[in-house]
Amino acid sequence: MKRTISWFGTLALIIVIVAFLWTQRTHAPVVNDIATPPDVTTPPTQKLSADTAQTATLMIEVTSPLQNAQVTSPLSITGRARGGWYFEASFPIELRDANNVLIAKTVGQSQGDWMTENFVPFTATITFPAQPTGSQGMLTFQNDNPSGEPQNSMMFDVLVTF
Questions:
Q1: What is the pTM (predicted TM-score) of this model?
Q2: CA angle at 142 for the pair 88 and 137, rounded to the nearest 5°
Q3: Which residue positions in the chain have pLDDT lower than 50?
Q4: Which fold has domain 56-161?
Q5: Contact of 131 with 84, CB cutoff 8 Å
Q6: Counting beta carbons within 10 angstroms of the beta carbon of residue 108, is it exposed (0 to 12), middle (13 to 18) or buried (19 or more)?
Q7: CA spacing 20 to 30 A to 21: which of 3, 99, 142, 161?
């Protein structure tokens, strides 16, 4: 009699373990263990997003002002950025002095349908107080990153002279 109870106990224990493992398997997350790294040679003519671009230079092109341009207030800013640079058709732009002190900020505004991976023109105007003649500053173009996650943040700088 003891032997029969022992066999039933062992069988019941095996069934419980199998059932537990089966339920864990069905609730486990699916993981794709084959990760394909982004192609670092992707030319800018292909569709890119903030997730797949290796540098901000593949995501944004500033046509005005150019590097080292002499600027005055109000400053008109133009260029083009891929749709992934925008969120709700805009992105932040900051102007800082040579000591990295914030002088002014504005918003780059899409001039077309930003819901694309292609380039979309943008414009902005930034108004700032007079700066010492000949001093330098930096215009920083930031992709709009609603997630707030640092790995999703990209910046592009244009050095300017006042």
A1: 0.66
A2: 135
A3: 25-52
A4: Immunoglobulin-like (2.60.40)
A5: no
A6: buried
A7: 3
